[in-house]
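---------- Forwarded message ----------

FYI, see the Carbohydrate ABC transporter record below. Original note from H. follows.
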Amino acid sequence: MQAKPSGATAAGEAGASPRRPAPSSASRGRAAKKASRTEDVLSRFHEEAQLGEAYDARMLLRLWPFVRPQGKHLALSLSLLIVTALLALLRPLIMRDALDAFDAPGGLDRLTRNGFLLTGVMLAEQSLAFPQLYLMQLAGARAMADLRARVFGFLHTRRLGFFDRTPVGRLVTRVTNDVDAIGEMFASGALNAFGDLLRLAVIIVVMVSLDWRMSLLAFAAVPPVALGVNWTRRRIRDAFREVRAKTARMNAYLNEQVSGMAVVQAYAREERSAEEFDEINAAYRNANNRSIVLDATLDAAIEMVSSVCIAAVLWYAGVKSFKEEISFGTLFAFVAYIDMFFVPIRDLSARYTLLQSAMAGAERIFELLDNKDEDATATASCTDAAKAADEGVAFELDNVVFGYKPGAPVLRQVSIAARSGEKVALVGATGAGKSTVASLLLRLYDVEDGTVRVFGRDVRAYARDELRRKFAVVPQDVFLFPGTVLTNIAAGDAIPDRAKVVNALNRIGALDLFERREGGLDAPVLERGSNFSAGERQLIAFARALYRDPPLLILDEATANVDSDTEARLQRALEGAMEGRTALIIAHRLSTIRAVDRIVVFHKGCVVEQGTHEDLLAAGGVYSKLYRLQFARQAAAHA
């Protein structure tokens, strides 16, 4: 559901006034542009497909594995809940006996005895309420911690294509807001509905035993309440679904804007971003308003029915008192029970609202957990013994066809093979498919046709961790985790090996650079490494690759963010680091790949040339043209 443009008014929706002038063509044009912009914003943060019919029982059954480890706490809490509910039902009976004692012989003693009994019951009830609520919330908090950990761990098992099409804010909403909505079911005592149902059953029995005719007046209110709850049920679930969807969309937009704040400010895009956010914020507000209206309507209706019911009972008692005497204590107890009868109904309606919110959150979480797009699962049928005989081949792409979107291939019949210890460089224009080759070797994506092999085995026959332990990757855009220089270089190790970190930094000639910083290797790394320069982040990435010491090394524009002096130092260090291992180097700067064993030239997703630097220059093909063009630009820049 999309929000209306903010320019829309109630009058505009209902029909314009005859005296109101027609909008000018310029106004219509601005409105059309704004509507188009709104459409574009909302489409970028599209809602998930409408979820199917979900039943609370089914959602609760799927939540049970997370709640079951806390079963003892939950069972004890529900037991205490039953006891407190029964104690609360004793109070009107004690009050009735105390009020009837005024006119009875020995009334003072009965009044005193009932006073102490009532005090004891209320003290016991309140004393048990604390552990009951504490145990309920403890069970809920622990269960939600397990669920949150499950969702977080689950995200690590999805393939990269899943994250390409899913906004980050939406995933953050699943782990935070949606799990919190389920946790609120425990924190707010929504599960105390079991005690409410028990209380209702006992109240019905007691009221019928006191006076069945007056009980019928009270019970006459049940059908309209039931109809109201049934009318509200589906609508309030839909309202909370919409709230959850709008929350996810808002989080996604905020994530985009904060991550791209430098671009927003550089292009003076603040005003347009504010307008787009207003549209999303208005949609979120309207969704919340709808849920609030439904909740308030149900609560007010129950309150009104309760008041009418009590008035009817009092009228009936007044009429009946002319014919036969009704004790004041009985009337007091009956009115108290009527009030108590509607208290759990009111509580049930409020808890029902919370339950619907929780079920909407659970629905969205389990929709995520039902995703089958698992990352790099090993497939036994992909074991290719016949073609795995040549163990000297480190990696191979055999007639590979791949596209990120159906019908738009990025690689077309690509065949590349690198022998163990060989240094292979991939060059070509932007978008030619070079980085895609690295992604396929790591099996971040699966090929549409053809085969990718590492050390003679189809990558689909490897377990995910086994395959990726054979690689170290130095990307162009380095991602650093909050922590220290030491923990970032030793990424993946629970306990970093300081000696290995020092050795890795020594091999690239960067140890002195980091030891000069305050804190040395224990210097803090802020979010995304914002307190380090681009060159320093690149050096940490090189050291991270050498620390891992795998047989295969992938360098994806690894020297793009370092200056010329640092690049020269890294080139010398990498020559030694790559000795004895296979390396795949993806480069735009052709000066960095002259010494490789073989250069593979890509053009529009196809391999068009292969050979050494000298051979390709002599051939006068695509590589020669790229080389002459790049160095002509460099010469012009230095002129």
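H. also flagged this: The two ends are 58 Å apart (CA to CA).
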